[in-house]
Amino acid sequence: MTLSLPANSSPAYVDSVGGGVHTLCCDRTRLTAGCQTSPKTSYAMKSTIPTLIVFLVLFLGACTEQADQADITLTSDTATQDSNKAVMARIYDAFNTGDLSYVDDIMAPNMIEHQMMPGVESVGSEAFRQTVTMMRESFSDLRLDADHMVAEGDMVATLITMSGTQTGPMMGAPASGNQFRITGLDLVRFADGKAVEHWGYMEEVSMMEQLGMMPPSEEQPLAEEAPAAIEEPAVADQPVE
Q1: Whole-number Å distance between alpha carbons of 207 and 75
Q2: Is the pLDDT score of 230 beyond 70?
């Protein structure tokens, strides 16, 4: 049996969850014209909207606060790294000028040195003072120029150019008047605005060669030349008997 409804009729059904009575929209010309919700459903929707608004406000506020905290942390890290780079520049100024009056302001007294200069017997910041003094006694025009400097976390890495003229004795060798120019790399760890640990690399062999303290290294050929092919003597054709 087929159940037929009038063209403009709108049958109702009972909402098993909310208990309200809803009217089905069966208007063939305007499907939503006769749709209505029960008072209970309308009340529930009106009660939910303010809750959603409050949730969105709290959520957006939390996101904004986290973003602000991230900006503050990033700004703080950048400021610390810039400060460490400034201290690094002052370390090179000590070599260039010989001024050691501010060493305690930029270097921890128990700083760890992984590239101790031969002849230096002190440790910590005193080793740095002794190193600068010895270098400037040997090279009165000593220069350490920072070519590139990069900071990451609590570390500062610097590619430097070291140059000078040997105007005084060095490692038992008398003043020669020879000049040198080499490349070096410094890696320094900082804590509380002071240098606390140092790793370094210098082209020491090239420095000794330029100062005449050791013979220049001979360049090795990249590959030995292949010996010339030996031509075998031509064999005359033997007459056929």
Answers
A1: 41
A2: no
